[in-house]
Amino acid sequence: MSIKKSVLLIVLVLLVDQVSKIYIKTHFVLGESVEVFEWFKIHFIENSGAAWGAKLNDFLPISENTAKVILTVFRLFAVAGIGYWLYDSIRKHSSKTLVLAVSLIFAGALGNIIDSVFYGILFNDSISQVATLFSEEPYGGLFFGKVVDMLYFPMIDTIWPDWVPYFGGKSFSFFDPVFNIADTAISTGVGILLVFNKKAFAHKTKEEAFAEDQDLEKQ
Asked: Residue 119, SS3?
């Protein structure tokens, strides 16, 4: 996979991700939900922490603001590392499967970083109101943005039968996480690496690498 195709894929994922987030921020109130299908809803939430809404200050004796800065800086270093991995993979003519997977992971990570770094100074808050882009009263500062999530798939939402030990009468739902396009890209990339591990990390012969060099020169 050439660097041009990789960049095109990254730009496409970022475009869809950011357009969807900006639309949700400027058309939905925080917590608002629209049912598309019984098993799929557009449900607007914001995540100021890591995966599953976890926050560093839940585990460490630090303030929420400090935890947010640490998490954002960590994400920036992680994106830089993934970006180098992608560059190195293309430079070494790694398999198309590996380059595809890393491109998706990089695009997804970068998409969420944009929220974390810039959304706090671009939007006012969405509590009881629809947010405004380029607001004169932004809800945070640089590095203090919240990640916008909206894709919700409550495929199962029911009550355990009374005869089930311990769980009887309690509610049960699947799939609870609310996520976004960037998260989907990351999960897809990781899934490709797990499922097609041997193909992704296969070593190429000198002849195959030379053939790819010739193809790149022609592009």
From this structure: helix
Kindly name the residue from 88, 149, 157, 162 that is annotated as catalytic: 149
Strands (DSSP E) found in the chain: 33-37, 40-47, 147-152, 156-159, 171-174, 178-179
Active site residue 149: yes
pTM listed for this prediction:
0.86
C-alpha–C-alpha distance, residues 86 and 81, integer Å:
9
Beta bridge partners of 152: 41, 178
- For the chain, what is the radius of gyration of the CA atoms? 21
Q: Given the structure tokens 């939430």, which residue do they identify?
A: 45
**Among residues 125, 157, 162, 183, which one is catalytic?**
183
Q: Which residues contact 107 (CB under 8 A, 6 or more apart)?
A: 9, 10, 13, 14, 17, 182, 185
Whether 58 is a known active-site residue: answer: no
- Cross-strand pairs, 35: 41
pLDDT single digits (tens) 43-64: 999 998 666 556 666 667 778 7
Q: Are strands 147-152 and 40-47 parallel, antiparallel or unpaired?
A: antiparallel
Scored b (16 or more CB within 10 A) or e, 121-158 reads: bbbbbbeeeebeeeeeebbbeebbbbbbbbbbbbeeee
